Give the backbone structure.
Amino acid sequence: MRYDYKMFSGALVYPIHPGCDPVIYKSEKYKTTRTTHSINTKRGGDRLCVMVAQVTMGRICLSLVAAFLGPGSFLADWSPTHVFNPNWPPHAKFHNGQTMSMAALLTIATFYYTWRIDPSPSNDSIKTATVFASLYWVTALAAYFFPGSLAIDPEFGTGFPQLPLFLGMLGLAWIGCWFELRRSWQPSKLHSSISELHQR
């Protein structure tokens, strides 16, 4: 069995029962993102192990962005300033519904890729999660520059009051990505963590 500590750098492997060695492995046969694996260890026989994503600062940052995005979009838009604004034409409400639906799907996608066990040594899942976590805020910032666009209807205020929030959430997503990529650049620490698991 060839051990490859970088391949599953986003995961710790815990035994389901005491007879199962915690293993991080590289095998064409078992190159999969499923959380359970039956593999043949040096002791002989199949051992069933489960891979669990680590709770890390990067994943926490991305999860905070996702947790705010979905509910926050509905709290802000399912209100008299948007969906229930009598001055809005039906087609404007249609696009507002599209925006809220997109926020909900981006939330689900961000959570999924943030906590998915990634078999890729390049942390593709975290990068994908960061893109999903960023899309809503990037498009919201871009919308300000369209002809005739206003960040808030004149009856409710002026300016761009959402700007600090949009920039903050976007920044938090990329900070989370940086934390995760930085962690994967430290194989010595990962090797030490896995060695501790094997000694248990």
Residues 1-49 have pLDDT under 50 and may be disordered. Strands lie at 11-15, 36-40, 46-53. The first strand starts at residue 11 and ends at 15.
